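Hi there. Long-time user, first ticket. I'm pasting a complex I've been working with (about 811 residues overall). I'd like to know whether the download I got is complete or cut off, because the file seemed smaller than I expected. Thanks.
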Amino acid sequence: MRDVIYRLFRSPAALIGMALLLLVAIMAASASVFYPQGPFNLVGQPLAWPGKLPGLPFGTDSLGRDVVAGILHGSRVSLLIGLAATVAALALGIAIGAPSGYFGGWVDDVLMRITDAFQTIPPFLLAIVIIVIVRPSVATIIFAIAAISWPAVARLVRAEFLKLREAEFVASCRLIGMSDARIIFTQILPNAMAPIVVSASIMVASAILTESALSFLGLGDPNAISWGSMVGMGRSDFRTAWYLVAIPGTAIVLTVLGLNLLGDGLNDALNTRLHRRRAGA
Amino acid sequence: MRVHSFSAILFAGVLSLFASVASAQAPVRGGTLTIALPTEPTQLNSAIDTTQQVKIVAGKIFSGLVKYDLNMKLQPDLATSWAVSKDGLKITFNLRKGVKWHDGKPFTSADVAFSVMKAFGQYNGLVRAVFANVERVDTPDANTAVFIMKQPAAAIMNALPVATATILPAHIYDNTDVRQNPANQKPIGTGPFRFVEWQRGSSIVLERNPDYFEKGKPYLDRIVFRVIPDTQSRGAALEAGEVDMIYHSTAAASDARRLGALPNIELTTYGYIFDSTVCFVEVNNEHPILGKAEVRRALAYAIDRKFVLDNIWFGFGTPANTPIHNALKQAAAGAVPQYAYNLAQAEKLLDEAGYKRGADGVRFKLNIDFVPFGDQYSRMAQYVRQQLTQIGVQAEVRNTDFPGWIRRIWTTHDWDLNMSAITNASDPSIGVQRAYWSKNIVPGTPFTNGTHFKNAEVDKLFEQVAVEQNATKRKAQFASLQKILATELPVLPLVSIDQFTLVNKRVQNHSTLADGVYSGYSDVWIKAAK
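Hi, the file is complete. Here it is re-exported in full:
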């Protein structure tokens, strides 16, 4: 484990990624400190360009709301949705993939056919359908994104379990009479974590993008500002006030870039074979 | 300096001379006019459908009995002259002779009788109520149609232009289901342009009708309607010269001023009198708190209508004091109560009404819904929520799709405040009465009285203006009506919207009639490129 952290910190990509994410985390944490009134206050003349009015470095949107306040509060919503949807998708994906790979047979058949059913529907369309049926809110968006992301996790986990259930350490656990649940959770799962962690970092990124796309289409939570909804609202003013799209757009790009860089770094750090090959070369 | 300014004046004078010469140019035949449609129509029969993308296409293919110019003076269309009897119970139309449908069959009074009694009089959502007053249409000969009325209908002449009272060919439609007739997809009219083809998802093409009854017209060879659903793309297509016209405010309002300032683009708000629209905050009048007029008045004080006009409608309109659009001169508002933006006054009224702030600063909670069209109404919802927060009313905005929104407002009636707008059409008896008349509370039918406002005085006045023949008396009745509506505030009026058209300057004579872009365009011509 210490090796992994050591390798992670020696990777420039992972360092940049972590720095970007730290920045976003600080933004999310400080939103209420700097803007306790929330992001919706009308603070000045609408559509004021960045720097035009004192105290409004990123300017105001079409209703005269402070764009900085929107970016800070929006980071909370974007991060919350990204993380919560990923955790939910991981939980569901593991719950389906682990027994499927471990037991095989009819359990595998049933669970994988369910997974197939979900995978045949275009994921973004499924998310739209879910949001349109239930009312758009932060909770329902998290639910919708989790609902479209879990099948990939289930497939990944199943593959890892298929491989590891034949391993010698698992056979020895069976031999000493360990229960299936204990083998799954204390033996195989920890050894299968490396690819899951790597894919989780990418899933957070894609969850943030999905939420942005939903908000952009007007299917976001109208009572919460997210970066995607800021882009969506700014879009109609694009030709006259492009900063309304560019600023939250940049925030999304940097966060997703940070997550991808961290994912790459984690992949390198956790992939011991690659590490050995590098050490050998 | 002085010399400079003098030469500038001289230059300006020469320019304006050129301009007046240019506008007096004789129309040129030929050319294709391309108009951007924001959404694709489902069919092209405007007698049974009041959506704007149906009206703009059908208006070129069909004709009405009369037209209105920009001064609201009646002009002939299929009828060359008309006479209303003193008691308003008999209206005689002398029809144009020798008019042919696009399929070559002659147009006669039987077509008029059919259209009134079995087409728009039955199925047109806006004017059905007006034509319900017609007992029958007599056809003494092929060129005379006489409306025999059950009672006078003050708004009937305003309802007659092609956009609402589309005259259909009886020989195609009679004894069929008008709403399902295949001709709705390939219309046959008497108008200046004939239907050529409709490529679904892409375009609708019309061509000049060589047998059009106004000799020598129309000037254009073709009109092409291109379906461009994306707002930004429509603006870009206009800028690039790929389309000549964006109508009914379907460019982003924030972008319209920039586009209108381009050297080859003209921005005009003419030609929408018959589509006068007022946007407002609708209030559920059956809500335990909002049902009290003093609470509604408090909310009115909390909303800065100038802000809404300037920043949500980008200056296209005027702040509204009543739900009747100020372009409808026959119903000009007199002195009505005003609610100048004043948060302190709003708080005072709420305190007096007994809704004091609680320990958490909140008086009560509300939901805000909005019609999911364009950006404006969701922005209004955001703005109103923020204003209400300041007077201690906590509101949550709900995002619903169009069918869900209709169900919530008119069927389940599970709402508090609603950001919306309705067209006043060409007369308040057509477009306004429906939203406030207590006999028009029809659960399940959209754009009826959804606030469930009930006021006996208002009911009586709406019934009076609907039959009043004397314009002066009618105006006085409208004034009393608006005084009550502005006092009781079943809705909080925000802005009398000016719809706008963005059009390439090569297009001439496009806004010469009261129904503007929905008219036949027989006078429109295109100036050749220099």
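A couple of notes from our side: Residues 372 and 403 of chain B are 10 Å apart (CA to CA). Chain B has a mean pLDDT of 89.
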